[in-house]
């Protein structure tokens, strides 16, 4: 009920064009989701390779749907047309809703958020797709924290129904309402949560990953754990495969944030297998090397 009321209030802030900062698999998934539900979106990155990966992600999803007859060529073209990939900040000036989705590092995120706030109009809503970093902490780098909140998507974005909308201490109700309304327009189910490191889902998920790491350090084999969790326990993916999907790099950064925020509950393990993989540049599905070896498509990109 509360959410419906909030979504009503959000009419004040109609989103004409959004922007996602940071392309790649997550940014590409967010861009696809917004574009396919009719809100044009700028996809901005500083790296042409990441932009290519973001666009490839959106095209891959659309082509799969086309092949299966779920969409026609027009819908495919319209959706791709709604995505504006760019390396240039100029393109952000006519957007009024920002989703920051850069690397999970408080300093980098803070700098990107402050920069974008200086470029956009005063009533633009700025959100962060951070997995774990406190929204109050990120808000410290902003002059208009009332226009800022968390908007946390899950991987793979097109398939995962939930979006967490995280309300910081200074976030206005209008900002929450507009963010819930946009998530709803994207076809997602939003839940509004108060701020803390890890929010709701990652406060459940990261202790689970920590338990998995402990099991491995006690001698369990990751493939056996996955087999049991998938076949016998019935979850769609075991923890090793899920870590590969989330990204070992992202998971390692998130583990650091959670350990700092909850020092007595979430210590970082010595020889944490997640960190060992990360330090050896095994980032999961995104660079094909993780717990598992992932395959490449015909153009040499991760499938
Ligand atoms: N992108 C887009 N579409 C995809 C896809 C992807 N990555 N993977 C599969 N699909 C499509 C398939 O083509 C298929 O389409 P169709 O219905 O048109 O035929 C459809 O999705 C179903 O495919 P599958 O049969 O392969 O799907 P499954 O039934 O195996 O489910 C899944 C796939 C939903 C990804 C399931 O494995 C799952 O729920 N895994 C767990 C994912 C999860 O927990 N994610 C959250 C991670 S935490 C996170 O991201 C937060 C961060 O902060 C750490």
Whole-number mean pLDDT: 93
Q: Find the count of extended strands (DSSP E, 2+ residues).
A: 8
What composes the largest sheet?
Answer: 8 strands, mixed
**CATH architecture label of the largest domain:** 3-Layer(aba) Sandwich
Ligand kinds: 3-hydroxybutanoyl-coenzyme A
Helix content: 40-55%
CATH class of the largest domain: Alpha Beta
Any low-confidence stretches, pLDDT <50, length ≥5? none
Distance between the termini: 40 Å
Give the radius of gyration: 19 Å
Label the overall shape: globular
Q: Provide the number of structural domains.
A: 2
Structural class based on helices, strands and sheet pairing: alpha/beta
Domain 3-hydroxyacyl-CoA dehydrogenase NAD binding: 17-196
Organism: Psychrosphaera ytuae
GO molecular function: 3-hydroxybutyryl-CoA epimerase activity; delta(3)-delta(2)-enoyl-CoA isomerase activity; enoyl-CoA hydratase activity; long-chain (3S)-3-hydroxyacyl-CoA dehydrogenase (NAD+) activity; NAD+ binding
Keywords: Fatty acid metabolism, Isomerase, Lipid degradation, Lipid metabolism, Lyase, Multifunctional enzyme, NAD, Oxidoreductase
How is this fold's topology laid out?
Elements (H helix, E strand, L loop, with lengths): L1 H8 L8 E4 L2 H13 L4 E4 L3 H20 L5 H9 L1 E4 L10 E4 L5 H14 L5 E4 L6 H5 L8 E5 L9 E6 L5 H13 L3 E6 L6 H17 L4 H11 L6 H8 L1 H14 L11 H7 L24
Parallel strand pairs: 1-2, 1-4, 2-3, 4-5, 5-6, 7-8
Antiparallel strand pairs: 6-7
The structure holds 3-hydroxybutanoyl-coenzyme A.
3-hydroxybutanoyl-coenzyme A binds next to α3, α8, α10 and α11.
């Amino acid at each position: 009920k509360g959410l419906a009321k909030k979504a009503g209030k959000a009419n004040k802030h109609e989103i004409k064009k959004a922007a996602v900062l940071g392309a790649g698999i997550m940014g590409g998934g967010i861009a696809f989701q917004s574009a396919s539900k009719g809100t044009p979106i700028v996809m901005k990155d500083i790296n042409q390779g990441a932009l290519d990966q973001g666009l490839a992600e959106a095209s891959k999803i659309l082509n799969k749907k086309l092949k299966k007859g779920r969409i026609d060529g027009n819908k495919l073209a319209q959706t791709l047309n709604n995505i504006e990939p760019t390396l240039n900040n100029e393109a952000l000036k006519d957007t009024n809703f920002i989703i920051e989705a850069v690397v999970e590092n408080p300093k980098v995120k803070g700098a990107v958020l402050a920069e974008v706030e200086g470029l956009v109009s005063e009533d633009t809503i700025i959100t962060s797709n951070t997995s774990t970093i406190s929204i109050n902490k990120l808000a410290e780098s902003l002059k208009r924290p009332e226009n800022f909140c968390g908007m946390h998507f899950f991987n793979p974005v097109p398939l995962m129904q939930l979006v967490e909308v995280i309300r910081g201490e200074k976030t206005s109700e209008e900002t929450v309402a507009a963010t819930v309304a946009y998530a709803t327009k994207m076809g997602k189910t939003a839940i509004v949560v108060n701020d803390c490191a890890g929010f709701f889902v990652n406060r459940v998920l990261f202790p689970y990953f920590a338990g998995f790491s402990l099991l491995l350090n006690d001698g369990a084999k990751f493939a056996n754990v996955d087999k049991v969790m998938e076949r016998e326990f019935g979850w769609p993916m075991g923890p090793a495969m899920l870590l590969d999907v989330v990204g070992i790099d992202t998971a390692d950064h998130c583990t650091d944030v959670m350990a700092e925020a909850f020092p007595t509950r979430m210590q970082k393990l010595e020889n944490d297998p997640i960190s060992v993989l990360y330090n050896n540049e095994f980032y999961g599905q995104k660079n094909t090397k993780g717990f598992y070896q992932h395959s490449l498509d015909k153009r040499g990109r991760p499938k």
